[in-house]
Amino acid sequence: MKKRFRKLLSFAMAAAMTVTLLPATASAAPDAAGGEANDNLLRIWYDEPATDWQTEALAIGNGYMGGLVYGGVASDKIHLNEKTVWDGGPAGGEANTNNYNYGNTNPIETEEQRQEIRDNLNTIREKLEDKSQYVFGYDENSYSSAGTGTNGDAMDDLNKLMGNLTGYAAPKDYASIFINSHDVDESQVSGYIRDLDMRTALATVSYDYEGVHYTREYFNSYPDNVLVIRLTADKDGMIDFDTNLQSVFSYSASNTAEGDTITLRGSLSSNGLIAEAQLKVIPEGGEMTVDGSSINVTDADAATLILACGTDYKMELPSFRGEDPHAAVTERVNAAAEKGYDALKEDHVADHSALFSRLEIGFNEEIPQIPTDELIQKYRNMVDGNGGEIPTEAEQRALEIICYQFGRYLTIAGSREGALPTNLQGVWGEGGFTWYGDYHFNINIQMNYWPTLASNLAECQIPYNDFLDVLRVAGQDAVTAAFGIENEDGENGWLVGCFSTPYMFASMGQKGNAAGWNPIGSAWALLNAYEYYLYTGDMDYLRDELYPSMKSVANFWNEALYWSDSQQRYVSSPSYSPENGPIVAGASYDQQFIWQHFENTIAAAETLGVDQDLIAQWREKQENLDPVIVGDSGQVKEWYEETTFGKAQAGDLAEIDIPQWRVSLGASSGGQEPPHRHLSHLMALYPCNIISKDNPEYMDAAMVTLEERGLDATGWSKAHKLNLWARTGHSEEAFEIVQSAVGGGNSGFLTNLFSSHGGGANYKGYPIFQIDGNFGYTAGVNEMLLQSQLGYVQFLPTLPEEWNTGFVNGMVARDNFEIDMKWTDGVADYFTVTSRNGGEFTAEYPGLSEYTVIDAQGNPVATENLSADKISFQTEQGATYTITSETQTESVSKTTLEYFLNSAKEHLANGDVDDCVQAVKDLFNEAIAEGDAVMADENATREQVINTAFKLMKAIQALNMKAADLRDLEMAVELAEMIDLNDYVSAGQQAFTNALTAAKDVLADGNAMQAEADSAWNALVNAMSALRLKANKDALESLLKEVEGLDLTQYTEESVAVFSNALESAKAVFANADLSVDDQAEIDNAVAALRSAKDGLVAKSETPDPENPDPEKPGGDTGNTGNNGSNSNNGSNNAGSNNSSTANKAAKTGDTAPIAGLMMLVIFSGAAAVVVSKKRAR
C-alpha cells in the first residue's frame, strides 16, 4: 500500500508541478466549429476512424502485448500482437532441442574441427592483409551486394565461418477483436473523435448517433496484464453489438464461444508453440447470447470486454518452453473480471502515469486545436516547401514535443519487466513484419533503448538487460564456431551477429550475407547495459550480472584481435561496416566498439577492485587499436584503405572506387545513389564517447563526415544523425534533423506518430514502420538538452534558436542526477539537481561559475570553480540543489504561500483530514509547520517559499486519499480464522491462505484506502467460498474393515475377480484426499459396488442349480437375488444414513452450514459497504 500510495502521490506531485509551477502551455481558443478546446498537449486525436494500421491506428500496450485501435463505428477492430508468438527456435519445442544450435553450423566438438575453423579464419585474414594485387586483398570486381545477397571471393571465404538460418524466423501476427454495432448508419454519425492520451495511456472513441452519445475506452494494463475495452452511452439500454476474436495465424486455430467468454487457441506449426487468448464479455443490463464463435449483447447500459492472452514460451534454454498457457490465461481474465473495470482502469492509469509523469518538457508551445494528422500535414508542408498551409511557431513546438513524448510513451507501452524487449516494430504490426521484425544488433535494438535512461524510465530497460543474460549463454558456442577459440566455460566471451530472436539466435549471420557478420554485436549490446549501470549506480547488477559478461567479451577480443603489419595496429579481421562497402580488416565500426568495450570493462573492473592482471592486457590491446583515423578529405575513415570519399588505395596499387560504396536498399533516385543510411564509422561520436568536443581534430572530421552524409535518410537514420549532430554542439544542423524527422512523411513520423524507415526512391515512396526511429528521436532531443558522457553534466549543449525559451523537469544524467532546467531567450534561469546516489556533481554551462548554488533550505553550497564555465560540488543522497543566476537579494513574495497555508489550516480545522490515510495526515502537519516557519522567516529564499507552497499544495491535493472503512474486512478475517483447514481438501487452501494474509496486511496498513480494503474483502470472501469440505468416508471405511478378513480362497475365481476389482477401486477412492462433498456420489458408488461384489461371492463347494436355488446362499434364488440387490441398495442407503449421521456430527466441527450463515452475514455487510461507498461517491 505504501508503495502504491507513493506512486499516486508522485503522480499528483508531477501533475501539480506541471499546472502550477512550470511555464504554462497555452491553450488556444475553441475551434471554429464551436467544439470544446483541447486542453491536453499530450493527447493525439483524429476525427475519423483508422483504415491503415501503420499510419493511422493508435498504439496501446503493456510490454507483453500490443493493441492497434482502429475505432470504427459500425465495425471496430482492435488488432492484437503477443510478443512471444514467434516462429523458429527448436522445432517441436521441448521434445526436440537437438535440432537447434542458435544458427551455428560449424562442428566444434573436437580439436580437429576447431583447428579447421582457425585455418579458415587465417586464410581470409592473410588474404585481407595481402596488398600485392588488390587494395582490399580480394578482387574488388568479384564483389557485389544487393540486400541480403553478397557475392564474391571474400564472401566465399567468409561463408566458412558463418552460420545459417536454421531455427531463425519472424514473429507471427496474432489476432483481432471485432466489435460490430447493430444497425448503425455511419452516414448519420456526428462528433466523431478518436484519441490517445499519452499521460494515462487511455485510447478513446466517442461519437453521437440518433441523439445518443457513445464512448469507448481502450487500454492495456501492465498490473493485470489484460487488454480492456469499455462501451458506454449516455442513455440506458443503448449498447448493442456482437464481438468475436479472430486468429490471423497461418494455421487453423480453434475459436469457440461459451457463456461469456470467447477462447482462441492453437499452436504454431513450425515449433509447436501454444498460444491462447480469452475474451470475456461483461454486459451491464440487457441480454447476452452466444452465436457460433461470437457473443451478442443487446439493450445493455454498458459493457466491458477483457482479453488475456499468453503462450507457453519461456525465456530459458534450451527448450524455451514453460507451462501450457490455459490455466494462467483463465486465471488472469477471471481475476480481472472480478476486479472490475473501475479498479482495472485506476491501477492502469496509476501505473503508467507514475512512469510517464516523471518528465515534463516545454518550448513555449501552444496546445493544438486541430486533429493530429492535420497538424502533421501542416508541418510536412513547411518542410517540403510545397506552398500548403504551415503551422504556427507555437504549433511547431507542440508537435516536436508530442513526438518526443511519444517515444517515452512507446517505451512504457512496449518494454516492461517480465516481458521480452522491444523488437524492430516494438510489439505492434499487422499482416507481417519487415526484416523479420527481429532484434537487429547492428544498431536497431540498441537504439530502442537509447532514450530510456535519460528520459527517466530506467525500469523499462530491464527486459533488455534480462535478454542479454540469456543471450550470453546461447552465444558462447558462436565464439568457437566463428573463430575456433575454445570456450567451454564461457570465459572467452559470447557473440551475437546482426540479428537475433527470442530463441537467442546468435551465430554470425547467414552464409551469403555480409551484413550478418557482426562480431562486435555483443560488445555494442553491452554498451547499453553498462549505461544502465552508469545512470542508476546499481552495484549489484554490475557485480553479479553485467561485469562477468563484459569481462568475457573483453577476453574474447583480447584473444581474437589480429596484428596487421600493413596497418601497424590490432584489427578485427574479417570485418564489415554495416551495411556498406567490402569485407575488410579493421573497419572503423569494429575498432571503435572494441576500444569502447575495453574502456568500459577496465572502468568496471577498477570500480569493483578486481582483475588487475587482465586490465593490463586489455589496456595494451586498447592502446593499439586506433579507432579513429582521419582521411584525405578530412573525414573519419570508414575503412583503413579509404583515401577520400568513395576512394581507396593501398601499397603501390592504384586508387580504386570502393566496392559497393553507398549502395542502399532500393533508395536510388534516377540512377543516383544517395548517401548511405548507416553511419557505422561515427559510432565513436555516438553512442560511444571517443570523439568529443575535447578532441577538436576528431570532432572536425566527424562533422565533415556528417555533412557528406547529408540530412535526408530513413527515419531511424535521421534519428542517429540527430544524436550525432547533438554531440557536436551544432544546434542549427541538429534542429534541421528534428524538422526533417517530424515532417519527413514516409521517412519520418507518420500520422499516428509511428516512425517510418521508408521504402522506394530516397525512402519516401511508401511507409515501413520501424520503431527505433521513434526512440532515436527522443534520445536525440535528450542529447540536445543534456549530456553527461564525458564524466560531467553539460546543460543545454545544443539548444537551437527555435527552443530558446523552455523548461525540462525530470531528465536524468549519469551518476543518477535528476535535472530540472528553465531558460528564457536562450539563457538559463536555473538548474535544479536532485542527487539520487550522492557524490560529486560537476557541470558545465557558459558562465556557470557566476551562478549561485543553494540547497533545499536556501543555504549556500560550497562550490569549486574548475573554469569560468564549469563548477563542482559535493551532494548528499536524496538532496536537491538549485543553481541559479540570481546573485542579489530580492524581495520574495509570500502571497501564494500564505494562500496555501491558510487553505491547509482551514481543511484541518474543518476535519477534512480526519478520514485521510496516515501519510496524508503527516504531510499536512509537516507542511503547515514548515509554512509557519517560512512565513515567519524574513530571510526566506524564493526557493524555500516555492518549495513550501508546493508542499502545502500537495497536501491539499491528497485529501481524496481517505482511509478505508475496515469493519467488513475485520469481520471477514475473524470468520476466516475460525476455519480449520484440516476439514477441507487441499484445492483452494493456498488461495485462501494468500487472501487471508493479504487481508491482514491491509488491516495492519495505516495508509490503506477503500479500494484496497474492498479488493481484499472480495478476495477473502471468494477464497472462503471456494473451500470444499472433505467428503464423508465413514461408510466406506467401515465396509473396508468389514471385508478386510475375508478368506477369498473359499470362493470361485470369477466372483473373487469381481470382488477384487471392486475392492481395489474402493481403496483408491478411500485414499483420494482431494475428494470433497461435491464428490460424495463417487464414494457412495464405491460402497455400493463393493457391497454388491461381496454379496455376490460364490462358494467353491457349491454349484448353484439354476432350477433349484438354495435360499440360504448368496444369490440363492430369484427372490433372494432381488433381496440381495435390495440389501446392496440398503447398504447404499445405510451409507447414506451413516453419511447423514456423520454430517450432523461434522456440522458441529466446521461443516459448510455455519460458514454459509456467517458468509451471508459478511456478504450482506459487504453489500451495505458498497451502498455506503456509492453514497460517498455521490
UniProtKB/TrEMBL annotation:
<dbReference type="Pfam" id="PF22124">
    <property type="entry name" value="Glyco_hydro_95_cat"/>
</dbReference>
<dbReference type="Pfam" id="PF07554">
    <property type="entry name" value="FIVAR"/>
</dbReference>
<protein>
    <submittedName>
        <fullName>Glycoside hydrolase N-terminal domain-containing protein</fullName>
    </submittedName>
</protein>
<dbReference type="InterPro" id="IPR008928">
    <property type="entry name" value="6-hairpin_glycosidase_sf"/>
</dbReference>
<dbReference type="InterPro" id="IPR049053">
    <property type="entry name" value="AFCA-like_C"/>
</dbReference>
<feature type="domain" description="Glycosyl hydrolase family 95 catalytic">
    <location>
        <begin position="340"/>
        <end position="785"/>
    </location>
</feature>
<keyword id="KW-0812">Transmembrane</keyword>
<dbReference type="GO" id="GO:0004560">
    <property type="term" value="F:alpha-L-fucosidase activity"/>
</dbReference>
<dbReference type="InterPro" id="IPR054363">
    <property type="entry name" value="GH95_cat"/>
</dbReference>
<dbReference type="Pfam" id="PF21307">
    <property type="entry name" value="Glyco_hydro_95_C"/>
</dbReference>
<feature type="transmembrane region" description="Helical">
    <location>
        <begin position="1153"/>
        <end position="1172"/>
    </location>
</feature>
<feature type="region of interest" description="Disordered">
    <location>
        <begin position="1097"/>
        <end position="1148"/>
    </location>
</feature>
<feature type="compositionally biased region" description="Low complexity">
    <location>
        <begin position="1120"/>
        <end position="1148"/>
    </location>
</feature>
<keyword id="KW-0732">Signal</keyword>
<dbReference type="InterPro" id="IPR012341">
    <property type="entry name" value="6hp_glycosidase-like_sf"/>
</dbReference>
<keyword id="KW-1133">Transmembrane helix</keyword>
<keyword id="KW-0378">Hydrolase</keyword>
<feature type="domain" description="Glycosyl hydrolase family 95 N-terminal">
    <location>
        <begin position="44"/>
        <end position="315"/>
    </location>
</feature>
<feature type="signal peptide">
    <location>
        <begin position="1"/>
        <end position="28"/>
    </location>
</feature>
<dbReference type="GO" id="GO:0005975">
    <property type="term" value="P:carbohydrate metabolic process"/>
</dbReference>
<dbReference type="InterPro" id="IPR027414">
    <property type="entry name" value="GH95_N_dom"/>
</dbReference>
<dbReference type="InterPro" id="IPR013780">
    <property type="entry name" value="Glyco_hydro_b"/>
</dbReference>
<keyword id="KW-0472">Membrane</keyword>
<feature type="domain" description="Alpha fucosidase A-like C-terminal">
    <location>
        <begin position="787"/>
        <end position="883"/>
    </location>
</feature>
<dbReference type="Pfam" id="PF14498">
    <property type="entry name" value="Glyco_hyd_65N_2"/>
</dbReference>
